[in-house]
Design goal:
mainly beta, Jelly Rolls, 3-stranded antiparallel sheet, two-stranded antiparallel ribbon, 46% strand, DUF1349
């Protein structure tokens, strides 16, 4: 599956071994659009695979989450202004589950 993917913002360090994708994120990368914070980001790492019709996706995430907003998960993306992501993220010193829906503006 990972061999069929196309990177958006390919990270400097990544590998696929025994069906497992390992990524070391580059600094200051994120996905975020038109929020009250006043900035837009489309610099996160995304390995996309095209699908047609209905589908089911599943991901197992394991990481060295330490710093505020360190995160990893699953994203369904149409373009930079239309996507949804879900996963784990460091917030207020704890690892939390979360999701973001973006239709022109991230919630």
């Amino acid at each position: 599956m990972f061999n069929n993917g196309i990177w958006l913002n390919e990270p400097r360090h990544w590998s696929v071994t025994e069906g497992r994708l390992t990524v070391t994120t580059d600094p200051e990368t994120d996905f975020w659009q038109q929020t009250h914070y006043g900035f837009c980001r489309d610099s996160g790492h995304f390995l996309g695979v095209s699908v047609n019709g209905d589908f089911t996706a599943q991901v197992h995430v394991q990481g060295d989450f330490k710093t505020l907003y360190d995160q990893a998960g699953l994203m369904v993306r149409v373009d930079e202004r239309n996507w949804v992501k879900t996963g784990v993220e460091v917030s207020d010193g704890a690892l939390m589950l979360g999701s973001v829906l973006t239709c022109g503006q991230s919630d």
